[in-house]
What we know:
Layout: E1 17-23, H1 26-36, H2 41-44, H3 46-49, H4 61-74, E2 82-90, E3 99-110, E4 115-124, E5 127-137
Antiparallel strand pairs: 1-3, 2-5, 3-4, 4-5
Amino acid sequence: MQELHGYYLEDLEVGMTASYAKTITDADVVLFAGVTGDDNPVHINAEYAATTMFEQRIVHGMFSAGLISAVLGTRMPGPGAIYIDQQLKFKAPVHIGDTVTATAKVLEIDEKRRRVKLETICTVGGKVVAEGVATNMVDRRPTE
């Protein structure tokens, strides 16, 4: 069995980026509500959502955070990295049918502690919908 591994600490450089994009469907929102238990009607009830400031259903903010997790866990640093923390601000709503692009950019590398700080941004059509900073613990390259 082949071991899956993303970038090793030594392979990362400040400024490197990676992204993941997903078009959000109604099924995604309903499944997310079911998995998390967050059945706030602004996410799943069109009649209720029409009475809110958003005037329509919106996607859970944490769905965007999950897309950041997809970047960090599958792209960069990738498999083998451990998500340590995330600071996140939600800037604008995401709607069903929107394509959200989550991007991570390496900001700092702490070789001694094996920590990598990354800027995390989610956009829809170039507009920032969520932004923050994440920290990952990243493996060093094995010595042979």
